[in-house]
Amino acid sequence: MGFVWMIWVKVVGVAVVMLVSGCTYGPQEELAQIENLAVRPDSLQFAVAVRYVRFQPATGLTAFPNGGVPNYLEKTAIVHLVDVSTDQIVELARIEAPDLLKTGYRAWLTGWRGDSVFLQLSGCPGSECYGDLLRFHHFALSPNAEPKTVTGRPEDIDRIPGMLSRAPGEKVYMRVSADSKVISVRTDDSEPFTERYMLQSSGELVAIAPNR
User: Which residues cross the membrane (predicted)?
Assistant: First the structure.
């Protein structure tokens, strides 16, 4: 009986050691990606919504069976305003995820009215996030003011041409395209898109050197 007890103690001890050693995380990492863009009508300006996270990836047993759940240290929505005529980039907002939106935190620009661009933040308070569990916060952002909480996007939002070619009566022509990291711009309807801006892992947006 004593021999069996010793084996049992060893098995339990090994299991505890594996469990403790398995609950580990790697070095801190940063990840940022472009969520969407919103062109300001009749201008050479556009806003960029960015999702930024700072986290520690799961290692050891916590990385199984599906890659593991990272230890998130920060989830933040960042909005940049870009003036293509000067390559000036201004940060309009940096909003860390509130508790009600911690899970599935996303940022989405819903359009412009005047000098304000409208931002929708979404997410959930619990571990699951879909359908009716989603919660939303809305903000109006402008270069000369703090982010202002609003009930939603105005109905009379400024409209932009929904075509690649120049629209009838369009005074200022600009089209913008993006993947998760690089933004391409076209300011002449007879010219191709050119890569102009790149998102860093820190969430900073920078202009691409012409000789890149």
Answer: 7-27
Indicate the pLDDT class of residue 161, thresholds 50, 70 and 90.
confident
Q: Is residue 15 part of a domain?
A: no
- pTM of the model as a whole: 0.84
Question: Is residue 129 one of the residues assigned to a domain?
Answer: yes
Domains held by the chain: number:
1
Domain limits at 36? 26-207
b vs e for 113-150, b when ≥16 Cβ sit within 10 Å of the residue's Cβ? eeebbbbbbbbbeeeebeeeeebebbbbbbeeeeeeee
What was the pLDDT predicted at 148?
A: 96
- 35/107 Cα distance (integer angstroms): 7
Do the domain assignments include residue 10?
A: no
